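Q: Got a minute? One more chain.
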Amino acid sequence: MTRGGWTEIWGELDAIGRLERELGSVAGRYRLEPTERHFSLTDPIYGESKPFHEENLFDQESGKRWRVCITEITNGVYALLYQVAVPIFIVTDIESDGPTPLHNSMLSFASVAIEADGTRHGEFEAQLTQRPDRTTNETTMAWWATQPEAWAATTADAEAPAVVMPRFADWVESLPGPKVFVAAPMIFDGLWMDHYLDEFCRYAC
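A: Always. Here it is, folded:
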């Protein structure tokens, strides 16, 4: 059966074998990547609510990805859910007090998680405190002086970057499927986000 984009198979004895048959012979070519995503569905056979933990399945040969859930619904009997993973675009815009994260501070940023068809998966926005080890840029601050309302909005209720960036990374990780960062211009917004994640986030690598 299909529900909400998921192919659902209930009452399966060999869930992994069934998955291989459903997707084609991909044994040895794929890896499962655990996620923090959990949800519940009503079992159509027993009529009970069952918890599911989602994993990402990555075919290392073709590059194709699926969202996969396997759970035991009774002794030795499993439910299998899967769907092709649709990319989610993390569209992001940042504000700063200068042109470079090497000398200046990011003041705020906002991201929207959205699929190519317009389906939204949430938003994230935050204001950040200015870094004590950075300075402001004279030209940028002269422009901000002409935008007092925008300055007030982008600096209100500011939080430390060390608090905000891990929270943002957790939000991104909670989204289903592969994620693609999008910004215009990428060289500006992308550079700031990459630098701050690298500086303040445990996910930095």
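A: The longest helix spans residues 186-200.
Q: Perfect, thanks.
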